[in-house]
Every structure is written in C-alpha cells, then in structure tokens.
Amino acid sequence: xxxxxxxxxxxxxxxxxxxxxxxxxxxxxxxxxxxxxxxxxxxxxxxxxxxxxxxxxxxxxxxxxxxxxxxxxxxxxxxxxxxxxxxxxxxxxxxxxxxxxxxxxxxxxxxxxxxxxxxxxxxxxxxxxxxxxxxxxxxxxxxxxxxxxxxxxxxxxxxxxxxxxxxxxxxxxxxxxxxxxxxxxxxxxxxxxxxxxxxxxxxxxxxxxxxx
Length: 212
What we know:
Layout: H1 21-30, H2 37-46, E1 51-56, E2 59-64, H3 66-87, H4 120-177, H5 184-210
Antiparallel strand pairs: 1-2
C-alpha cells in the first residue's frame, strides 16, 4: 500500500458559515417563503438558524450555515402543511330523514277556531271595567249639565244688573246735569251777599266825605 497517497483536506469549520443575511433571504424567497432581513436577524438571535456573529470594519454581521437555512425552510413547510390539514373542513354528517322535513310537512298555523277562549275571570274583569267607564262618563255628563246651569244663572244676573244700573243712571241724570248756582237758594244768597257788600262800600264812601 502506497503510504504517500494524498489525503482529502479537512473542511475548515469556518466554511460551514458562508451565507450572509442577504443570501439567506434569497433562499427563503426561492422556497416560496419570503422573509425580510430583520426577520432573518431575529431567527439568528433566537437560535432558529445556526450562525456566527463576526466583526467587520463598520460593525457586526451574521454568517449563517446553509444547512440550517434548508432545515428551517423544511420545518416551516411541514408546519404549514400540518396546520392546513387541521383546518380542513370536516364532511358534514348526513341529516336523518326525520330531521329534514318537506315543506308540506311543516305544521300549519292554528286557525281562528283553535284560538284560546276567554276565561270567566277575564270576562268578569272586562265587564267591571266597562261598567266603571260608563259610570265615569255619566258623572262627567252630570257635571257638564251643572256647569251649564250655573253659567246660565250668572248670565241672567249680569243682565239684570245691567238693567238696574241703566235705570239708576237715567234717574240721576237730571240731578247730575244741573249747573252749580242754578238753584233759587244759591241765586238769592249770592244776590244778598252782593247787596251787603255794596252797602258797606257806600258807607265807607260817606264816612270819607264827612271826615276829610
């Protein structure tokens, strides 16, 4: 056996993490499961994808294992198929012939003959209620008649009062219409006062002539 035959070079562990976030997003999109860069970063942070965080001149980035991406895509597809199978509608059980009735078998509504009859207690209550209403109506009619009579009496009294006032005015008109000083007593009193005043004036003139 030739011991100098070259052996296969061992694969470096760093070659397993060869996908960037952008590369992983393309694989998800090709599988019909598009994901955003932020979602893939969240997968890496939660451990859903096998990855490493390496430092770069302007920060850090994830390097993802291609096998973990393929495994995660297969897991998502399997989960979706399982959920779709659970949500599939179940066949509706056939209804029995007794549960489904033909339109003609539907019970028709009861006719007027089958209407419930009025009980004796209800009839008695209705009769008493009607009698009470009739009594109240009769009382109101009586009150209206009394009010009409009172109004008629008040109207008659007002008319009589107006007649009496008119007669009294007619009687007092001659007395109230005579002017002041028209009576004989007033005229004679005024004449006597004027004569007395004239005499006093004459006497005063005579006295002045006698005693200059």
